[in-house]
Amino acid sequence: MPRPVPAVLSIAGSDSGGGAGIQADLKAFARCGVHGMTAITALTAQSTVGVTGIHPVPGEFIIEQVRTVAADIGVDAVKIGMLGTAETVRAVREALGHIEDGVPIVIDPVMVAESGAVLLDDEARAAIVRELLPLATVITPNLPEARVLAAGAERAGATERGRDDVEDLARALHGLGPANVVVTGGHRDEVTDVFFDGTSVTLLAGERHPDGAAHGSGCTHSSALAAHLALGFSPQEAARAARRLASEAVRDGHRSIGRGPGPVNVLGVAVRAVTPDRLARQA
Ligand SMILES: Nc1ncnc2c1ncn2[C@@H]1O[C@H](COP(=O)(O)OP(=O)(O)OP(=O)(O)O)[C@@H](O)[C@H]1O
Ligand SMILES: Cc1ncc(COP(=O)(O)O)c(N)n1
Question: Coiled-coil regions in this chain (predicted)?
Fold first, then answer.
């Protein structure tokens, strides 16, 4: 029987502070109207201020999480976030073997948390480039992540271009194998996402919300993008929708939750908490 709504799988880390990682992914999936599922790669003890510990999930158990949901529910799109170690990258590569060919895969090459904590070691970065990027329908690095990945591409002789032009970065990253590249704009003044499909560059512009809260913006963006692919949108349409949703989530973000960069709020536009006071006023 066909699924009543698409089912989207996040293979990513847990943020105990609830701002990024799988916690952000599930909220973004709910906002997009798809059924969200998770295969957790690592537990982080994390707040808005920093990460005090990382507990990787054994590779075999990452594979088991994916195999179990794929066998029963099925998967219409995959989003891959924090991986952390090369062993995890290899396990995720193997886990993808349990998902049908042709299912869209969105990879957000998470390297550093908004708070500055390092979430990916050097060996894992090389493994992502080698084992996962060629399988991606879309990759969604932010500007610093794009620079790091493109530097690897230059060493491999894939590009001779200047590294600081964002369009050139997107082209260089396309050379690493993904079908489409979005370099997200959160780290640039004009906050324009740059989309490249191997033929042409499209600039995805929108409003900038300098006073918003952006912890989890990248996770929200890549999950919304995967959800829109599962809903049948083209990669470019999905990237445009994801940019809009992430931007609204930053605008509605909670700056006063925690002492560091506050979490995005992707459900803020749609949901109002019912408090005893509000309920009494309505009665
Ligand atoms: N201040 C902002 N105003 C509007 N949109 C924003 C803002 N900051 C980020 N975005 C949007 O959010 C999405 C994620 O971009 P960003 O570059 O922040 O990702 P990221 O750095 O990977 O996020 P994270 O901080 O979660 O790792 C993009 O579509 C981007 O345009
Ligand atoms: C588990 C996990 N995954 C991803 C991020 C990146 O998100 P951000 O850069 O917004 O902190 C994070 N902080 N934690």
Answer: none
The Cα–Cα gap between 266 and 39 comes to 21
Q: Which residue has the higher pLDDT, 188 or 110?
A: 110
Ligand 2 environment, Cβ below 6 A: 12-15, 20-21, 44, 46, 81-82, 110, 113-114, 119, 215-219
Cβ-in-10-Å burial (0-12, 13-18, 19+) of 211 comes to exposed
In this structure, the chain runs to a length of 283
pTM: 0.94
Cα distance between residue 233 and residue 8, in whole Å: 14
Task: Give the mutation target among 191, 204, 207, 211 for probing the ligand 1 site: most ligand atoms within 8 A of CB.
Answer: 191
Q: Tell me the CATH number for domain 7-282.
A: 3.40.1190.20
- Which stretches of 47-128 are assigned E, i.e. beta strand? 51-56, 77-80, 105-107
Nearest to 129 by CA among 105, 103, 164, 156: 156
Residues 96, 66: Cα–Cα separation, whole Å? 8
Q: What are the residue boundaries of the structural domains of the chain, listed by start?
A: 7-282
Calpha distance 127→229 (Å, rounded): 25
Compute the distance from residue 205 Cα to the ligand 2 centre, in Å: 23
The ipTM of this complex is 0.96
User: Which tokens hold the place of 224?
Assistant: 């919304």
Dist CA 8 CA 108 (whole Å): 15
- DSSP string for 188-227: STT--EEEE-SS-EEEE-----TTS--BTHHHHHHHHHHH
Kind and range of the H or E element at 277?
A: helix 276-282
State the pLDDT confidence band at 231, using cuts at 50, 70 and 90: very high
129, 160 in Cβ contact below 8 A? Answer: no
